[in-house]
Specification:
The chain is mainly α. It has one domain. 72% of the residues lie in helices and 4% in strands. It is built from six helices and three strands; from the N terminus they run ααβββαααα. A three-stranded mixed beta sheet has the order 1-3-2, with helices on one face. The longest helix is centred in the last third of the chain and has 45 residues.
Length: 246
């Protein structure tokens, strides 16, 4: 319920933005599921499975020391920079579908980012642990500060304390926003690297490459939704704090 508390004249506008964001999210998630399912049953033209493609891509980019592991679940694929592993899910590991190869190439793209010293990737890895913590506490710290400001409206000293507390909360949430801000281009870059490899190494036909791009871009759109959501939340917190100090 914190989302619309204290919005005043802005409440209608925020309702509109929040509803639009929710609808956009449903559309993106639905499209991604349809594309993943559709192209999970289409074998790549080369007949090579995801594991083979990852090994070829790693070798071509002179990335050594990275191992391929099998992890449970569906679409739980990830690259773990600490353990130097590319973890492929049940729907990807050893599979030769367009979806499997595209997803594996994307995760391999992250390994290439890490080993090439990509600045944005380093920044994300640096702030990721802190962002994970602040995402859980920052909003509540801001609300606590605003409530103190509201309760102490006639006491300037306590009102200022509340303002400073809410500012700390907003500053902490800004880290979450920055995390998503750098994550989106990182994800897009990993997809471009993967698609480039799929074309150059002939893993897929031209039509299949277009299908793979649809899958990867739909997956990337989920990060665009997350970025938009974090931006709206940040704006909401700023307005809530600003209104209460007046």
């Amino acid at each position: 319920m914190y989302w619309f508390y204290g919005l005043g004249d802005y409440s209608g506008l925020f309702y509109l933005f929040a509803i639009a964001l929710m609808i956009w999210s449903f559309i993106i998630q639905g499209r991604l599921k349809r594309l993943v399912k559709k192209y999970s049953s289409v074998r790549v033209a080369s007949g090579k499975d995801a594991n083979t493609c990852v090994r070829e891509m790693l070798s071509a980019n002179e990335v050594y020391g990275v191992t391929i592991n099998h992890t449970g679940g569906e679409m739980t694929d990830n690259y773990n920079p600490k353990e130097e592993t590319i973890n492929l899910s049940d729907t990807t590991y050893g599979k030769d579908s367009i979806t499997a190869v595209a997803v594996a190439a994307h995760e391999c793209g992250h390994a290439c980012q890490a080993h090439s010293g990509m600045i944005m990737y380093k920044i994300r890895q640096l702030i990721a642990p802190a962002a994970g913590v602040t995402s859980k506490i920052s909003v509540w710290i801001t609300i606590a500060g605003v409530l103190i400001m509201y309760a102490a409206a006639k006491n300037d000293g306590f009102s200022d304390i509340g303002y400073y507390i809410s500012t700390i909360g907003i500053a902490l949430y800004s880290l979450v926003f920055i995390f998503y801000l750098v994550t989106l281009p990182i994800e897009r870059n990993a997809s471009r690297r993967g698609l480039k490899a799929m074309k150059e190494f002939g893993w897929v036909s031209d039509n299949q490459l277009k299908a793979a791009k649809k899958v990867l871009w739909a997956a990337g759109d989920t990060y665009a939704v997350a970025l938009a959501s974090s931006a709206l939340t940040l704006l909401r917190l700023l307005l809530m704090r600003g209104r209460r100090r007046r």
